[in-house]
Design brief:
Length: about 220
């Protein structure tokens, strides 16, 4: 099974990737929402027992995506860093080493609510930071899922997930892409981010992610 699903949206082709990202072939752009780098480090500084290695895992996934798709531009739809505590030396040194492996890649961050609190990434990462919206083709790239007057919105922030029901008490909750007529949501890319259940509205499409694949939820 292919690790992506091609869809048509706003008269453009988008690839929904099994690793919770979007590839926009016409612009050779990779879209990532809600990486939340340094979230585990921030929680550990508060004394919470959370897993180690999440930053390295997320960067390895990014490496694999950049190796697998022809990409000139990496765009983060907000929440690159989780909190001020995410500026921990270990977190930033790992991201800096990753950036040096991709020094020719253009990277843009659309500032999200966590970025406003955490502060912009260090200048050495050479990440262009802009306010929302960023217009690209027929799309308005944003962090907040607010409608745009002329462009279809691709946004993060919500961390959408969808609950699949099976027999008896069996149920499965998976990250999802939530495609609506005017505003569509990307799942959170970060591995330690949680999710919010979405209720499917009329005229919407839900594409869940799991087991290395993306598939549309039938009616």
């Amino acid at each position: 099974m292919r690790p992506y699903l091609s869809i048509q949206l706003a008269d453009a082709e988008l690839w929904l990737l099994a690793d919770k990202a979007v590839y926009y072939p016409a612009e050779r752009a990779l879209l990532i929402a809600d990486a939340h780098f340094g979230k585990a480090a921030a929680y550990r500084r508060l004394g919470q027992p959370v897993p180690h290695g999440t930053t390295d895992d997320n960067l390895e996934r990014l490496d694999a995506l950049l190796a697998g798709y022809d990409c000139d531009h990496l765009i983060f739809l907000g929440d690159f860093l989780h909190a001020p505590e995410s500026h921990a030396a270990g977190t930033l040194s790992a991201i800096q080493a990753w950036r040096e492996r991709h020094e020719g890649l253009a990277i843009t961050l659309i500032r999200g609510n966590h970025d406003k609190r955490a502060g912009d990434p260090p200048p050495t990462l050479a990440i262009k930071v802009v306010p929302e919206p960023l217009l690209l083709g027929p799309f308005s790239l944003q962090h907040e899922p607010d409608p745009h007057p002329s462009h279809h919105v691709l946004a993060g922030h919500v961390h959408p997930a969808y609950r699949l029901f099976g027999r008896a008490r069996q149920r499965l909750r998976l990250p999802c892409f939530y495609v609506q007529p005017h505003v569509s949501l990307l799942p959170a890319f970060g591995a330690f981010t949680g999710g919010m259940n979405i209720e499917r509205a009329e005229g919407s499409r839900v594409y869940v992610v799991g087991d290395g694949a993306v598939w549309e939820v039938s009616e």
